[in-house]
Design goal:
Structural class: mainly beta
Organism: Papaver nudicaule (Iceland poppy)
Family: Belongs to the glycosyl hydrolase 28 family.
Number of strands: 30
Distance between the termini: 44 Å
Protein name: Polygalacturonase
GO molecular function: polygalacturonase activity
Radius of gyration: 24 Å
InterPro entries: GH28_Enzymes (IPR051801), Glyco_hydro_28 (IPR000743), Pectin_lyas_fold (IPR012334), Pectin_lyase_fold/virulence (IPR011050)
Number of helices: 4
Amino acid sequence: MELTRRSTQRAQMIFVLLGLLGSLLRGAESFDYTAINCRKHTASLKDFGGVGDGKTSNTKAFRSAIASLSKFQNDGGSQLFVPPGRWLTGSFNLTSHFTLYLHKDAVILASQDLSEYPVIGPLPSYGRGKDLPGGRYISLIFGTQLTDVIITGDMGTINGQGAWWWQRYKTALQHNRPYLIEIMNSDQVQITNLKLIDSPSWHIHPVYSSNILIKGLTIIAPPASPNTDGINPDSCTNVRIEDCNIVSGDDCVSVKSGWDQYGVAFGKPAKHIIIRRLTCTSPNNAVLTIGSEMSGGIQDVRVEDIVAIRTESAVRMKTALGRGGYVKDIFIRRMTMKTMRWAFLMTGNYSTHPNNNYNRKALPVIDGISFSDMVGDNVKIAGQLDGIKGTPFTGICISNVTLNMLPTSKFAPWTCSDVTGSTNGVSPKPCSNLPAQAAKKCPFPTDILPIDRIQLKKCSIIAKL
């Protein structure tokens, strides 16, 4: 019986290998990648009439390909290969148990034809769009209610052609700008090994989702481009962001969870988030921002091994009266800062609101914020920490931090109000609100989150170029 089973397995393996060899002999090539799951079925965008000349619309080709491949959700999953070329397209939706793979010489170009972007409603935790009240153009690459979805490649490019949108969003657009990639209400999401440039707005927006791996990305937008955040996990759980290079017109990474009364009512926090080994440049904003939309709560964010270059602030926390919610247990360590305006910037008066119906008595709670083992050169202001009068930010801990101030800076190194906490080994000397405690070392969690236990598999694609 055992001999028969082994013979059958051997025959099946030989059959697969012969099939692969046949494909290669017919001019196909093999591409390896790592992923949370591999796929049984493969197709190329060219199989569905795709034309990679940078001028022909491929919206129909992408949508047809994914609709066709969706039938394999329960049969080993599927993968769509985007070959070398410039593939102009409007928005398309992904499916479950699916991989979108970009060849290293593939460029997906976002269409500037508004008819290729359906309008969808605002996020329920926001109540409106960020630019305008009401709905928004759907993201270039979108998915909702998905399980096991992967966007990856060999550093292929997704180009949002954002300049067209940036010039029009204040005057000519009737709806809010699209994001480059948005995945909603989904589980097991991987976005890896890609180059993303010039999104109309945020580049990557996972929202109401869990078990998310974002790794090995290069994200680039001009410093003056509006709201081109790099990666914004929003009301998500178990997120791992690592090994990315980001140059942004806004925050490199911003953790969010809903806006004022809408976020409070929706009540979905962002929690258990790992951010590590990033290099960020954002001359007008921050490497890491918590908020200002944090009304569903943010807890357990672990940040380490970050390099910040020519960035307005390293760490920024934003909230206001009316937000409600909480920010708790934020741990940041081993950050290197080069040419900064602020190292630490915290404000309780970031008073933008979706409308006038927010609860003026909804007070945010900010507690348990730790910074340790950080160095900085050419820093104008070490820290500006302003809590909310009568509702101070509490549990702030800063240890082993050395900031070399810009010799020409005319600002006081530290200003603080309505904050409490402690420091140890911090230079220049912090505010009296944060007294030195010789034995105080700021904590960093030692437990391993589930998202850090995932094991990637070696997968492959056989496809013609």
